[in-house]
Design a protein that fits this description.
- It is elongated, with a radius of gyration of 14 Å.
- The model has no long low-confidence stretch (mean pLDDT 94).
- It has a 4-stranded antiparallel β-sheet, with no helix packed on it. Strands 3-4 form a two-stranded antiparallel sheet.
- The N and C termini lie far apart (30 Å).
- The protein has 80 residues and is an all-beta fold.
- The chain contains no helices and 6 strands.
């Protein structure tokens, strides 16, 4: 869920989600698909961590010329 600073659900934003492995300098070979569900609720499919190790999930939100980012850390993804 994405809210603005007033707690209102953000709609119509461009949102990208990028799995990234900084230690290896690369991301996932798959493209993450983000879909808007309404009221700021989003769905994300095809998030792939294709090897074990330290990963980041980088989320970028752009709306009306404003941009914000957040990084979620996954320090110990298990490999297959």
């Amino acid at each position: 869920i994405v809210h603005d600073r007033n707690g209102i659900g953000v709609t119509g934003a461009k949102i990208t989600i990028t799995p990234w492995m900084p230690d290896m300098g690369h991301g996932s070979p798959e493209q993450t698909v983000v879909t808007e569900k309404g009221g700021g609720l989003l769905g994300a499919e095809n998030i792939v961590f294709n090897m074990g190790g330290y990963w980041e999930l980088r989320v970028k939100i752009i709306k009306d010329g404003d941009e914000d980012t957040v990084v979620f850390i996954f320090p110990d993804v298990r490999g297959e």
